[in-house]
Prior knowledge:
Elements: H1 2-14, H2 41-44, H3 51-62, H4 71-77, H5 82-94, E1 98-104, E2 110-116, H6 120-124, E3 132-133, E4 144-145, H7 198-209, H8 211-214, H9 222-237, H10 242-250, H11 260-270, H12 279-282, E5 293-295, E6 302-304, H13 312-321
Antiparallel strand pairs: 1-2, 3-4, 5-6
Helix pairs in contact: 3-5, 4-5, 7-9, 9-11
Amino acid sequence: MDTQHDIALTRALAEIPGPLPPSGVIHIAVPHTSRFTIVGNHLAQHAELSLTAIGIGVHIQSLPAGSKVGIKALAARFAEGETTIAAALRELEAHDYLHRTRERLPNGRMITRTVFCDQPAALLRGGAVMPVAVVPVTPTAVVTPVVPRPVPASAPALPPAPEPTPVPEEAHPPFRVPSRIAPTSPRRPLPQPREPSPELHRAASALLADLRRHAPELVLSEGDVEELVPGAAAWLERGAHPDAIRRALTTELPQPPKYPAKIVRHRLTALLPPPLPGAQELAPVRRTPVTPFQTCEGCDRAFRSPAPGHCRDCRAQHWEAA
């Protein structure tokens, strides 16, 4: 069997037009006639999704409508645990491939409606939507495009299908995007120093490159360091000590950290301290002096006066007597 396989592989490589690449993968493309799913490169080569999330996304897209795609169902199908699968589903939700909503059926039962969109970016732009097959009463329903299967050449000829009866346009309401498919809030930008300088850039670059000495998990590439330098420079410009910045970036890291550069970027943005206050802000507040209360020496009435004596009425009586 191995010999036949090697011969077939050698023959297929010989039929590839043009010279073979010196390194890297070589594709042998055999046309599919059944049991295939069209997957966009935006999902298969997604720059921010993990490999687990991409694999689960491709698996869900290949399933028929009505298939169970909950955490327990996927954990029973694959070797990954429920925690890993739940994290991958959250990744797909964050990038609008997967949408899960709670709905109440007419009988009062609560269900989770699961919708998988194979091109979320095109859907948000108002692109065309293929006909879909939906199973509305299953606890977890997946919406997948209905792809017609090719008819084998040896199949008997079928009678022509009757002409479809025209249906009024009102019978087909337009596809409405659920509220959960709305664009998420944009990511907060990386802090930038107000007055960048070569010295500030050099100190921030050295601080980021030195992180791996204090946390071996935070190994940043040269490109990551160059991209994150403005955030570290903003901290230094605001008077943060390098040791304080280092503790903020290396304390209580997730184990294992999958994306060190993203962790550093998030902490540089979310934990940015405020600018140091100036001398005017730190000056003590001047309070208006308050005139103290005095007790009248004639009637024991309380009145405000900088010095002891008589109240207004007693002073008037003394003036009249005089």
